Inverse folding.
């Protein structure tokens, strides 16, 4: 199981479905450097003047630090190429504005990484990952709702 960024966000915000928590503990968990990057970017996007920002950043960094390095997968050249093709195809077919293409690229990178390594993506992001799966049914995705 390769976690999409939505899994970490939902866990941090206490929104991950309680009924699925045993699955998380039992699953062979893998992590993506793309999701790690999205989490770190969120730290920089938070308003430093907000009272909860410091605690939120600490929680995000603690979550990243708990990711075992031997379970962290980074996209290679082949994955980047495949993700670029998937992103461009979705952008064209769905008429996605340029401002949203980076988000789709990140999802495509996670999807292509999981596919290459034989993992299933766990995500709440039904819209983007469903499109990715429709374009490439050889990838596996498991969806959940909150």
């Amino acid at each position: 199981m390769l976690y999409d960024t939505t899994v970490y966000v939902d866990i941090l915000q206490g929104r991950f479905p309680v009924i699925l928590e045993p699955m998380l503990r039992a699953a062979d968990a893998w992590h993506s450097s793309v999701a790690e990057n999205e989490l770190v970017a969120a730290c920089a996007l938070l308003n430093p003047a907000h009272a909860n920002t410091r605690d939120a950043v600490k929680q995000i960094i603690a979550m990243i630090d708990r990711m075992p390095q031997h379970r962290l997968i980074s996209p290679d050249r082949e994955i980047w190429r495949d993700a670029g093709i998937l992103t461009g195809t979705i952008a064209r077919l769905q008429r996605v504005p340029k401002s949203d293409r980076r988000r789709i690229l990140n999802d495509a990178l996670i999807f292509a990484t999981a596919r290459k390594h034989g993992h299933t993506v766990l995500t709440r992001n039904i819209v983007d990952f469903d499109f990715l799966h429709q374009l490439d049914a050889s990838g596996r995705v498991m969806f959940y709702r909150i």
In short: The two ends are 19 Å apart (CA to CA). The beta strands are 2-3, 31-32, 72-73, 120-123, 140-143.
